[in-house]
Amino acid sequence: MRLANEYAEVDVEVVHTRNGVRLRIAAPHTGREILLCPLELESLTWQDHDVFSGFLETPHGPEH
After folding, report:
1. Tens of pLDDT along 19-29?
2. For labelling, which of 24, 37, 40, 60 has a CA lying 20 to 30 Å from the CA of 17?
3. CA 53, CA 20: separation in Å to the nearest integer?
4. β partners of residue 3
5. Do 10 and 26 meet the contact criterion of CB atoms below 8 Å apart?
6. Contact, 37 vs 19, CB < 8 A?
7. What does pTM read for this prediction?
């Protein structure tokens, strides 16, 4: 599935690994991707929007 708006675009898919099911999130424009396990995904629901706003202050990481 591809999710997009005027600011970003990501591909999301379920993948089966030797360690179980993961959600693969890939950003085609940057070539970056991550595999998240169910616990990592659940932990996202524990956060408030301020955490994600903080991520967007340096969207490409502190090294950029």
Report:
1. 999 999 999 99
2. 60
3. 30
4. 10
5. yes
6. yes
7. 0.82
State the pLDDT confidence band at 55, using cuts at 50, 70 and 90. Answer: confident
Residue with tokens 């967007």: 56
Residues 37, 24: Cα–Cα separation, whole Å: 9
Rounded distance between C-alpha atoms, residue 64 and residue 50, angstroms: 21
Tokens of 54: 């903080």
In degrees rounded to 5, what are phi and psi of residue 28?
-60, -30
For residue 41, give the nearest of 63, 21, 57 by alpha carbon: 21
Instruction: Please tell me the total number of residues recorded for the chain in this structure.
Output: 64
Residues 6+ apart with CB under 8 A from 13: 1, 23, 24
